[in-house]
Amino acid sequence: MHALLTHRSVWVRFGALWVLAAAVCLVAWSLGYAVLPEGVLRGRIPTQALAGGAESLPTPLAEWARIFGLNCCWRPSASQASG
Question: For this UniProt entry, which segments traverse the membrane (predicted)?
Answer without folding.
Answer: 15-36
